[in-house]
Specification:
Blueprint (H helix, E strand, L loop, with lengths): L23 E5 L4 H13 L3 E8 L6 H13 L3 E5 L37 H16 L3 E3 L4 H4 L7 H14 L1 H4 L6 E3 L7 H11 L21 H12 L7
Parallel strand pairs: 1-2, 1-4, 2-3, 4-5
């Protein structure tokens, strides 16, 4: 009697190794052009599977949240929103009655920390992101901090971000038990606004959906520091702002 051949899986004749699953990233998405560019860098350059983390902290420019959701939806990213409040205030962005600084373009980022700085905001953002990443097993946290920011805001500087990355590795299960190389990625940290915009245009960032104005009205004011930096960035990039 002929013996029946045992069933076996089909084996490819090529020696190609199976493709590894794409790494994952948690992107801190504010709705501005910097974080939107950082998201598309993670998607298009790194080829990571991304989730977007949004923060509703009582900011006067809550209009940025709808912009962030629109950018995330366009990119096909799941969204998680963290809601919290800082009852002690300490920033012009938390009090609609506080005047916003109006600097000359050349003076932005020079001198003392501006009144639009929210006390330890990025420390809070990154702490929430570390908790989420630890729970979900996500190795990469992406933030859109850049050179123009860290000249004025202390929690956007490279040394600070390196320290937070080290704290994340020391203080999470992901970084201690599982020995995963948890990273805080700031791909725009050394770029000017114009360089960020040029890179974003090549990546297809939907800048028409983004929002930068600190006043948070229906239309950008065109006078606050953030509006001035955005306008100068598009001008130096020889591009038209679609928003």
């Amino acid at each position: 009697m002929t013996r029946r051949a045992a069933l076996s899986p089909v084996v490819s004749t090529s020696h190609a190794r199976p493709r590894r699953a794409a790494a994952r990233a948690l992107v801190l998405l504010s709705g501005g052009l910097d974080s939107a560019t950082a998201l598309y860098w993670a998607l298009k350059i790194k080829r990571w599977r991304c989730r977007a983390l949004l923060f509703d902290y009582g900011q006067r420019h809550r209009r940025e949240l709808s912009a962030a959701r629109a950018v995330a939806r366009r990119a096909g990213c799941p969204i998680k929103t963290v809601v919290f409040r800082l009852p002690w205030g300490g920033s012009a962005l938390l009090n609609p009655q506080s005047p916003l600084p109006r600097h000359r373009l050349s003076a932005i980022g020079r001198g003392p920390v501006p009144s639009t700085y929210v006390p330890a905001r990025n420390t809070l953002f990154i702490a929430f992101a570390l908790s989420y990443a630890d729970a979900a097993g996500i190795e990469n946290i992406v933030i859109g901090a850049n050179a123009l920011d860290y000249s004025g805001y202390p929690d956007c500087r490279p040394r600070y971000l390196r320290a937070m990355e080290r704290a994340g590795r020391l203080g999470t299960r992901l970084g201690t038990e599982k020995k995963r190389p948890l990273k805080i990625c700031a791909p725009l940290i050394h770029l000017s606004k114009a360089q960020i915009i040029r890179r974003g245009l090549t990546l297809g960032v939907p800048y028409a959906l983004t929002w930068s104005c600190y006043r948070g009205a229906h239309r950008p004011c065109g006078r606050c520091d953030s509006c001035l930096l955005r306008a100068e960035g598009f001008h130096r990039a020889n591009a038209t702002d679609p928003a």
